[in-house]
Description:
Distance between the termini: 27 Å
Strand order of the largest sheet: 2-1-7-8-9
Mean pLDDT: 95
Number of helices: 17
Amino acid sequence: xxxxxxxxxxxxxxxxxxxxxxxxxxxxxxxxxxxxxxxxxxxxxxxxxxxxxxxxxxxxxxxxxxxxxxxxxxxxxxxxxxxxxxxxxxxxxxxxxxxxxxxxxxxxxxxxxxxxxxxxxxxxxxxxxxxxxxxxxxxxxxxxxxxxxxxxxxxxxxxxxxxxxxxxxxxxxxxxxxxxxxxxxxxxxxxxxxxxxxxxxxxxxxxxxxxxxxxxxxxxxxxxxxxxxxxxxxxxxxxxxxxxxxxxxxxxxxxxxxxxxxxxxxxxxxxxxxxxxxxxxxxxxxxxxxxxxxxxxxxxxxxxxxxxxxxxxxxxxxxxxxxxxxxxxxxxxxxxxxxxxxxxxxxxxxxxxxxxxxx
Length: 359
């Protein structure tokens, strides 16, 4: 329940935003958790009509390429292999089926809540080869790196990681360099920023002249970020501001990054909606190759196909919103998802469907 002093603060911020707006402002919230929070708390209803909020490539499941989804499903079909994954991935449709459908056909697909759960599974079931599907940004990669170090220390020979981890700054750089995404400022992701630090967005500001504000996930955090972005835009300024200082520093978590890069190294990666982006993914270093599922298994798939009619790619690029998609709310619903943006708890389509007054 929101306390009265918080309600008063929300009103003050809303009035300050309205007073600061001098013209149309299009703001991108990069993080999927921000998208959900904006809908859940009715943030849009508190803003003047001149402000438009759009979502960016901040849902890790949503930006995982169709090819990688198909390869994960192919892994689940291998003999004596258990695929361990976070829950959101299970229902994402591949070119032919989903992990959930593969499980219904006999594949061993287990939902876990951390990579260490998957390692424990491998240690307790030595006759099974356990493959953890590593999907996420800089926030989750250090914990997966720590798990791989634990696996090496335990000398386990039946635990592997399929790494689809991605790095946020190269994706933002590619988004504004190579697509038609047009925004006037960024609400930068809070969780990712705890690791990479607020200073990681300085190149975006310098290269594209985009104001950036790092924000937390409460209504006051988001409204404060919007106010700071509107003020920068109205004054023709562009800089990085941090209104999530209780969790995010300028340099971020250097120990977590050191741990991450001890196990992983940057590589080119496939992104749904954005294509191949140089140095935007994390591959497992050669010294840990015995734990790398890509190197230890022969993964065979047919040519991957994007879901017909699905506009997830355009939505990720902020070139469309879910209601623009002819499948949204019709053939594509949370019960019958066509694309990952409707599946993931951080997906834009899921947020629009749950909170967007969709009948």
